[in-house]
Amino acid sequence: MKIIIAGAGRVGTHLAQLFAREKHNIVVVSNNAEQLNAITSSYDLMGKKMLPTSITGLKEIGTGHCDLFIGVTPDENLNINCCMIASKLGAKRTVARVDNIEFLDKQSEEYFKSMGVDLLFIPEMVAAKEIVASVKRSWTRLWWEPEGGNLALIGVKVRHDCSILNIPLKDLPNQNPAYHIVAIKRNDETIIPHGMDTLKPMDLVYFMTDKENQHHIQQICGKGKYKEVRDVIIMGGGTTALYTAQLLPDNINVKIIEEDLNRCYQLNSLLPKDNVMIIHGDGRNLNLMHEENLSDADAFIALTPNSEINIISCLTARNAGVNKTVAMLDNLNFISMAESLDIGTLINKQAISASKIYRMILKADIANVKSLMVANADVAEFTAAPNSKITKKMIKDLRLPLTANLGGLIRNGKSMLINGMTRVEAGDKVVAVYVDNDIKPLASLFN
Asked: Residue 186 is inside which H or E element, if any?
């Protein structure tokens, strides 16, 4: 598959890394020679120094024959324009990174589609939605709901007070209430579990269940003491912080600590909510954090541009007694280290955005792909096509890839968990977890 990426920044680099791993024909376009040299020296792809809106240049690199064109430069107008040109030249599908939230409403999306831009996304908005989902349920590391049903994928860090440790999974009384353990992250290893596997303290465990049974998962994992989040402190007042504060419910009190005074004034005008307070100051100042009652906060979210500061700030918050901490890490190299320090929920907007785009290159009908960064795994929502392999036999007879696990399905709006006796039907939406980006063997079952 031929993929052209306009922009060699962090999002472009992450996409290039993801696609190069699967041996796609990739061309990265950028007017920044330094970024372009860095990306071409690291991955097996072609680089072209040019303005992404150069019609002559786009023709030279074969845009008219590409399967996917992605505009991820820092300039949303440039991204939209180069996608429109690429579409007119013959690119099959186009994706543009934008900043204006108005572009994401239904009417605007339809307009841009008519102009040749198939998908618009805002990395900061995608990250904010994930942060809010996690903060609403302080006892989880991850909460993800597939579209159109009642299923939930819940990531929980289990400790010594978890009641289902050291029991073979096949012996767990998991039918009523219903849950299915679909993946386990243990140290640096991601395990797709089978019947004889057991849970150990400090495992990050991914449960598939229906939303009605979330409280049962909370209890068996020893998380009953976690109270509902009412007071949140956000360190850093960038765009992700703005969207997070906008999306958090009005019954949650939010303090945003921002070092830049002009940005404080901007946030104050953009967030005219009674439950939001903007504080001018340096979140690294322990005296200031003490004055703002850090120890009384239910959640602390570190969203500065500096990954190291975010990690250290979350450690400080945890030492102060904050149960729920969230750190934004722009540098993926810090993910493993931050997890080993037991930071809490980790957010990387580049990886989240890449997951959203990645599903566009797959042949299967996939509504969602979500990266489980900490676990080096992903979760995807497939739709079973008529006469596809997945519909031919019961799950136990399909010889699924050892790198994948099917968690649950949605049929005619109703949810059910999957076991060996399940028979998938055409039109079912199936939620699967897979490791090492090995989605293609799994996707082939649904075509």
From this structure: strand 179-186
Contacts of 238 (CB under 8 A, 6+ apart): 124, 303, 304, 305
Classify each residue of 175-210 as buried b or exposed e, where b means 16 or more C-beta atoms within 10 Å of its C-beta.
eebbbbbbbbbeeeebbbbeeeeebeeebbbbbbbb
Task: List the beta bridge partners of residue 350.
Answer: none
How far apart CA 323 and CA 341 sit, in angstroms, is 14
Q: Which residue pairs from 54-59 have beta carbons closer than 8 angstroms and sit at least 24 positions apart in sequence?
A: 55/85, 55/89, 57/29, 58/29, 58/82, 58/85, 58/86, 58/89, 59/89
Compute mean pLDDT per 10 residues along the chain, 447 residues long, and list them: 91 84 86 91 91 96 94 95 96 93 89 93 90 88 77 90 91 74 88 91 91 85 86 95 95 95 95 92 89 91 94 92 91 79 85 73 56 70 89 88 86 85 90 77 82
pTM of the model: 0.82
pLDDT at residue 85, as a whole number: 97
Among positive and negative, which fits the CA dihedral 294, 300, 305, 308? positive
* Planar angle of CA 186, 353, 350, nearest 5 degrees: 70
Interatomic CA distance for residues 105 and 356, integer angstroms: 17
Residue length of the chain? 447
Tokens of 432: 């699967």
Specify the residue for token string 């994928």: 153
Where residue 105 falls (left for φ over 0; alpha for ψ -120 to 50; beta otherwise) is beta
Residue by residue, DSSP assigns 323-353 as SEEEEE-S-GGGHHHHHHTT--EEE-HHHHH
Alpha-carbon torsion 38, 41, 45, 51, what sign? positive
Q: For the purposes of burial, counting CB atoms within 10 Å of the CB of 171, is it exposed (0-12), middle (13-18) or buried (19 or more)? A: exposed
The sheet with strand 25-30 has its strands ordered as 46-49, 25-30, 2-6, 68-71, 94-97, 119-121
How do beta strands 204-210 and 151-157 pair? antiparallel
Amino acid at 116: G
Question: Quick check: helix, strand or coil at residue 378?
Answer: strand
Distances (CA, A) of 298 to 248, 291, 306, 376, 411: 14, 16, 23, 28, 37
Q: 150 with 159: CB under 8 angstroms?
A: no
For helices 10-20 and 33-42, angle between their N-to-C axes, nearest 10 degrees:
20
